[in-house]
Amino acid sequence: MGSPGPIRFVVSEDELVSSVIDTALRTYAHQGRLPILGSDPGDFLLYCANAESDALSPWETIGSQGARNFLLWKKQKAEEADEGSPPSAIGRKGSGWKAWINKSLNLKIPSH
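Above: the chain's sequence. Below: its structure in token form.
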């Protein structure tokens, strides 16, 4: 099983998405959570938790979306990926990657 509860931390609206992913991975590892995710931010995508949208660009600022909660998704390696299957096709309603990640990662973005 995994570690319970979301990861919560505060970042500036001006932080790049890639920096937020890096902070999330370091926080996750520092807390000794399972499963072990790895430490390369390039292996992950960040999505707005309440939107059915594409992954955020690593080079945009986290505050550009106007959202406060995000989901971290580990990219599938080419040999593991289903051909053409988007991440939203995984699992049944109320379970799967979004539900698990929503429980595991909850970022708070302050607005000024």
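The CA atoms of residues 48 and 70 lie 5 Å apart.
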